[in-house]
Amino acid sequence: MSLREHSIYDCILNNARNFSDEIALVSGDLRLTYGEVPFHVNSLARGLLNTGFEKGDRIAVLLNNCAEYALLLAACTRIGVITVCLNTRTSAEEMHKMLEQAEPKALIFQKSYEQQADQLRDLHIHRQLYSIDDASVLSSSFDQLLDEDPSPLTEPQPAVDDGWLIIPTAAVDGIPKGALLSQRNVFASADVHLHHFGREAIKGHLVALPIYHVMGLTSAWATFISGGKNVLLKQFDEKLAVELIDTEKLTYFGAFPPVLERVLDAAKESGSGLESLKLVYGLEGAENIQRLQEKTGAEFWTVFGQAETTAFVTASPASERPGASGRASLINTVEVVNDANEILSPGEEGEIVVRGENVFLEYWNMPEATAHTLRNGWHHTGDIGRFDEGGYLWYVKRKAEKELIKSGGENVYPGEVETVLLKHAEINDCSVIGVPDKTWGEAVKAICVLTPGSNLSVEEVRDFVGAQIAGFKKPRQVIFVDELPYENNQIDREAVKEKWGE
């Protein structure tokens, strides 16, 4: 490594010395101290090398939050293997497209996703499949990746600017994009957490969001790097979340609808005041923010960011400027520009662009998409916003060519759903929009024009979409109309929203 580089593996060793007896990771009944973490990481790193992995190889992961996931990510920082963090909520077909691009040497999965793994095993790129549960005809045991020797490796460490993680983002034209992140990206995100929230506020983290989601991922590493405790929720369970916050004295978590609402409801039911909780951050409606701050001692922080920026680039307490998305972090330059890439004045709407050490490296194996997104020295988010005179960012909408629906923290591109709908023989035309939803923030709504004489039902449309792409992309609402509004030979999406966007 370079003289001036400090890696996540270096943090692992430092924390083992500085916080040896402190709890680093809780996953079910497993409790690992910082002193124990290096032995597990070294054992797994050696095992991966023995299995034939080399620097730059990819390994795909299809897991809920668990200790194996966290330790694998750590081991990969030591030997330069790139982890492909598959979204467990997407369909096997969508995962297939991501894996075709990334070409991993192996897939690690858990028993509950064995059906998806079986559908993916015919890919010639999958030379090895490992189950963290019992091995089967389909797979070997994850334990086979562990070497008996837990001593430190002597091989050189990879550079902190090398690729470490691939986070799939929402698909455009049916092709998912994998945002490649480095250790430096995650370090930068940890700096932002520490600067805005403070070490005391993030010393106990409920990992309620999945690790494959950039919010869950970066908050977990920010807590680890600063010597705090991460408690993993394998799957979101609001009653268990409240229990863990209280028993483990946890201080914060990231949330998007409906996570916070369900935690608050469960706390009310159990009589918990969530006394240890200091903050929650993410996306949420005004009603639940108010509930949090009235019923607990915690503060809600609003933020703006995306996978490509390794989580958030703006942040502030929601009470400072209700409705805004915060102010630029200490490590980011955030501006709003017009189509000529000219920086706009406060109050003017344009595309939100970002510079900083947390901006991703590239879209894996997509040089044209990468060049377009990172043009003119800025990361172009595809989001429209404006700044006010106080420096607070206000999110407005997605750019027309990158129209996006945010449902329960997941990104849904209308164009992807429309492509699926138009494959149905009885759907002549369609438009997909996002509509307000109290529970999920936004819901997917499909407005469809059917072929003459069709008796297609709403449920048949929903089932048809759900059979081909992730369940969270299925329209929650479907309506049938005689025709859609057009302008310049294209569907007038704004007119669709105005007429049917309730």
Radius of gyration, in Å, reads 23 Å
Side-by-side strand order of the widest sheet: 7-6-5-3-4-8-9-19
Unreliable sequence segments: none
Mean pLDDT: 92
- CATH-wise, what's the superfamily of the domain at 8-237? ANL, N-terminal domain
Q: Rough shape?
A: globular
Count of beta strands: 28
In the CATH hierarchy, the architecture of the domain at 8-237 is 3-Layer(aba) Sandwich
Structural class: alpha/beta
Q: Roughly how much helix do the residues carry, as a percent range?
A: 25-40%
CATH class of the domain at 8-237: Alpha Beta
Q: Would you summarize the structure shown here?
A:
The chain is an alpha/beta fold. It contains 14 helices and 28 strands.
Write the layout of secondary structure elements.
Blueprint: H1 8-18, E1 23-27, E2 30-33, H2 37-50, E3 58-62, H3 67-79, E4 82-85, H4 92-102, E5 106-109, H5 114-120, E6 128-131, E7 140-141, E8 163-172, E9 175-182, H6 183-197, E10 204-207, H7 214-225, E11 229-232, H8 238-247, E12 252-255, H9 259-270, E13 279-282, H10 286-295, E14 299-306, E15 311-317, E16 327-328, E17 332-337, E18 350-356, E19 362-363, H11 367-373, E20 379-387, E21 393-398, E22 405-407, E23 410-412, H12 414-421, E24 427-437, E25 441-450, H13 458-466, E26 477-480, E27 486-487, E28 490-491, H14 493-500
Parallel strand pairs: 1-11, 3-4, 3-5, 4-8, 5-6, 6-7, 10-11, 12-13, 13-14, 25-26
Antiparallel strand pairs: 1-2, 8-9, 9-19, 14-15, 15-16, 17-18, 18-20, 20-21, 22-23, 24-25, 27-28
